Amino acid sequence: MKGSNDDNNSKELFTDSGIKVKRIYKASDLKARKKDGKNSRVEDAGKYPFTRGIYPEMYRERIWTMRQYTGFGTAEETNRRFKFLLEHGQTGLSLAFDLPTQTGYDSDDPRAEGEVGRVGVPISCIDDMMICFNGIPLDKVSTSMTINATATTLLAFYITVAESQGVPINILRGTLQNDILKEYIARNTYIYPPEPSMRLFVDSMEFCSKNMPSWYPVSISGYHIREAGANAIQELAFTFANAIAYVDACIARGLKVDEFAPRLSFFFCCTMDILEEVAKFRAARRIWAKIMKERYNAKNEKSMHLRFHVQTSGESLTAQQPDNNIIRVTLQALAAVLGGCQSLHTNSRDEALSLPTEESVKIALRTQQIIAYESGVTRVVDPLGGSYYIEYLTDEIEDRVWKYLNRIERMGGSLKAIEKGYFQQEIRENAYRIKKEVDEGKRIIVGVNKFIEQEVKVPEILRIDTELERKQVARLKEFKARRDNTKVEHMISKLKDAAERDENLMPYIIESVKARVTLGEISNAFRSVFGVYQPKIII
């Protein structure tokens, strides 16, 4: 009875990923793992393979970065929410973009109608980005931007805003998600075919490695793979397969692994099987360290560090009894901290209904703060290390991930597996299994299929004023009317020419942004050269 712990007298119980669970674990259940003739279970934090943490002191020295994913309505609305969160103790910004921005359309494009400002902030031009960060000194904050297909353009916007504040780009701190491969697997906000998309990725990696030493140019994301229906083992395996593809592409460009690998970061989901999630994060550190040392012969220890952001699971939240989501998020956030994350976003209780209200966002932020400053779990590094069950799960997850990675390697790597629909099929099958278990009552979701309340209480939710879209479109049209359009056309032509040659496109994109070329115009220039990706129908 996979996924169900309703009947603890059942002969067979499993973790969410299908690992069979015994009644009790002992030292004899742990696999013998030797390193240099010594028992690896006595390893310290901050030492290879970093199972117990990438830093010796972990949270005793510095609490994780607290980021709340934010963006909606207009740049003005988003700027106000940023300032609200900073005033209440948030320590890093995390920017959400609307669907038109994610897929390379300006707000005034007919294809953007009805989606402007809905699931994130619309950023069509440099003025939008200026407003978004108005009054926020970019030399003082770390900013994460969840953007992929248009990541290079948004990075160019951010660089231009920083320079307008007199902030040199070599001190900017933050992260660009920039993980295009997982878009083909799970999220679908791609624009171009995989090959030119990978070119843009490597262009940004090369540019940042040379000019932005404190910036993470990619956050290789298992989060969306997990939210699409993968289990914990698939989340790690598919994410690391993509990471290998990115590292290979950078090396093929001529970059040295120790020049760029320390600026790779990861983004994972944390859901409800909290002990499996803790073990997942521990296994992930060990796997990545081995990949970098054994496959790529990395010499710099920082190249072997798995630095990762965690977001609690949006998919696990329920529209029914939404206050229950506060408890779900708390447990997931605790698991992320026990697993040793470097930054964390806690979802809000009302996100199964709408974008979160200010009150809900504040509760989500306070959840992190209470864990950090009241729970006591930050006093010791890897507090669950040595638990027979945690150590068993860590080993088992690692072994199963390696089996997946070896299978993907035999297929020819991540790009080939994507083309074959392998990742997509594996995720679909697991998602179907989970849904079936919920429908049959074998997997209990409180308030959904057990402990149901007939009276439905609808909380106050955030509603996006439709007038905001009209104002955004009008402002963009005015922006286009008052710029030097001859200069704009010249820059678009230069962009196309550069795209047809084998050059790094980042300098051209930055120059275009400064010439007031819009995001949609930059994307269209690349569409004309690269084409648009049409996924194969997998039956």
Q: What features would you describe in this structure?
A:
The protein has 539 residues and is of the alpha/beta class. The chain has 19 helices and 13 strands. A nine-stranded parallel sheet has the order 9-8-7-6-5-13-12-11-10. It has a two-stranded antiparallel ribbon with strand order 1-2. The relative contact order is 0.14.
Form type: globular
How are the strands of the largest sheet arranged?
A: 9-8-7-6-5-13-12-11-10
Counting helices, strands and paired strands, the structural category is alpha/beta
- Average pLDDT reading: 94
- CA(first)-CA(last) distance: 28 Å
Percent of residues in beta strands: 5-15%
Strand count:
13
Largest sheet, in brief, is: 9 strands, parallel
Number of helices: 19
Low-confidence stretches: 1-7
* Helix content percent band: 40-55%
Radius of gyration: 23 Å
Give keywords.
539 residues; alpha/beta; 9-stranded parallel sheet; two-stranded antiparallel ribbon; 9% strand; globular; disordered N terminus
